[in-house]
Amino acid sequence: MPSHRYRDVYSRVQVPLTDRDWPGKRLTHAPLWVPVDLRDGNQALAEPMDPERKRRFFELMVRMGYKEIEVGYPSASQTDYDFVRLLAGTGLAPEDVTIVVFTPARRDLIERTVDSIRGMPNPVVIHLYTATAPTWRDVVLGKDRDELRQIILDGGRDILELAGALPNVRFEFSPEVFNLTEPGYVLDICDSMTELWLATPERPVILNLPATVEVATPNVYADQIEYMHRHLDRRDSVILSVHPHNDRGTGVACAELALLAGAQRVEGCIFGNGERTGNVDIATLALNLHAQGVDPMVDFSDIDEICRTVEYCTRIPLHERHPYAGDLVHTAFSGTHQDAIRKGFAEHRRRAEESGVAESELDWRVPYLPIDPADIGRTYDAVIRVNSQSGKGGIVHLLETGYGITLPRRLQIDFARHVQHHTDTTGTEVTTAGLWSLFRRTYLTERSTVDNVRLVGWETTGGDTPAIRITLTVDGHERTSTHRAADPIEALGAAVNEAGIPVEILGLVQQSLRGGDDGDGGDGERALCLLEYRTGTVTGWAAGCGDSAPAAGMNAVMSAVRRTRP
Ligand SMILES: CC(=O)SCCNC(=O)CCNC(=O)[C@H](O)C(C)(C)COP(=O)(O)OP(=O)(O)OC[C@H]1O[C@@H](n2cnc3c(N)ncnc32)[C@H](O)[C@@H]1OP(=O)(O)O
Ligand SMILES: CC(C)C(=O)C(=O)O
Predict the structure, then answer these.
(1) Please, which residues have CB within 8 angstroms of residue 548's CB and are 6 or more apart in sequence?
(2) pLDDT tens digit string along 326-383?
(3) Residues flanking ligand 2, CB < 6 Å
(4) pTM for the whole thing?
(5) Is 381 left (phi over 0), alpha (psi -120 to 50) or beta?
(6) Ligand 2, atom 8: nearest CA belongs to which residue?
(7) Which reaction does it catalyse (predicted)?
């Protein structure tokens, strides 16, 4: 790899701090969130959003509770301009939602931007940007430091002239590529802008400091933000904002450390769409706060609806492993994780019952699940899925949640071997219904045409000492026997032994069947008997279903008999 072609961040920009406070700080409250999906996210789409998509996305953000939304770059396209006009002319944006519009420092484009917001009933932020880093000055804009400073201040003056008198308008400035700009230079420009725009605590100016292209470890960005936080003039009249991108895959970390370093506001995209590897993912940021016990002040309780809308509007599918939101992130396939999750859920339910606190309100400590999937509208069903990496814990969980069956531990171990063989052979996942079907095939050993032992019937005989009469056919011959037994199951066990079939019943467990994709055990069966038996030196398991516990027990004995006579 020709790594020698690249320079580390320290040789590209002065990193200003040698001592810093941010490592000792904690995140204790949500920042001001500003989704920029309709501007920065939109400009990164191969097919930018049409008006219907923009509107749908905007309405989603409003429903989620975002109070400041960057809605577009009105001087760049008619769609963006028209969308801002739509907001100005309808009640689409609730009155407490601030509308942000974005513009470069060019008078013609600023004029068009200001035109777009005329009559807007909502608070508005006009967001001016210009790149300030040396490479952009030299290569892109062809301006030296002073010339560029002049362009930015001219842009600021134009905005003041055209929109300064509008009482609902505030101003934002972004020195694009802040993270590669000389700290003293960018500080001077930012101070000049707050002076020009007469920033006050009542009408604060937003200074937004982007990591336009992420180039350093997050601690470097945090140092840069803390430097600005400490040295900016009129600090109480500035809202310090960050706008990380994700080129190194650490956009979220950059935003979190920047908040520790003094930032108050974060611009990003829900699920992190945006140029190249994306803007910082403000869904992950918010849910990270939630997972630390901090109210994110945005509603993610219907994550599936949020995913559907974002995917529709961006035409980009969400990765299955996307933090919090991906289809698989609350799913465990691996055996030991499933075991821990199942035990965790059981403990959670028990604690809820004992304490009288609702499960949805109780402290969360289920292993391997950072948050309760139910908080974001996901059900428990998807949490555990079974494939060849799974163990008995997952299998047991699915049968428990799907059919209400609790397998005894030795049967769990036995059935897990059959499931393993099945998943190894097919190479696929097995659903809850698939597990139940495999269970039936393995242990219920249904009646077949080649049956050579059948239970014809049984009855309790009266008299002083009641007994149970059993009628079987064995190899085509009917035989009836009477047994003094505690119950018909024991009597049937004795009858088959007398018929020369050495099946010894070691123990049995009766269960009731419920739910499941196919409603019950099949044919209206509501009872299940799980039976452990011994034949010779070999022990095994069999099961029977029925409309009552005795019927299920008798069927279980007959399953055991069939399992011993292939
Ligand atoms: C990091 C970011 O996300 S920044 C936002 C980027 N977003 C977009 O570019 C999407 C919308 N943009 C557009 O539709 C177009 O670029 C427009 C309408 C704004 C301008 O279009 P054009 O006039 O054709 O210019 P073009 O797209 O080629 O932009 C380059 C010009 O803008 C200048 N420029 C770039 N940024 C800025 C700025 N912030 N302020 C002033 N001028 C700028 C460049 O120096 C260059 O000028 P030159 O033609 O004299 O060399
Ligand atoms: C100009 C700012 C806000 C930006 O979009 C970026 O730097 O990525």
Answers:
(1) 526, 527
(2) 988 988 888 899 889 989 999 999 999 999 999 999 999 999 999 999 999 997 666 7
(3) 40, 129, 174, 176, 208, 210, 212, 243, 245
(4) 0.83
(5) alpha
(6) 212
(7) 3-methyl-2-oxobutanoate + acetyl-CoA + H2O = (2S)-2-isopropylmalate + CoA + H(+)
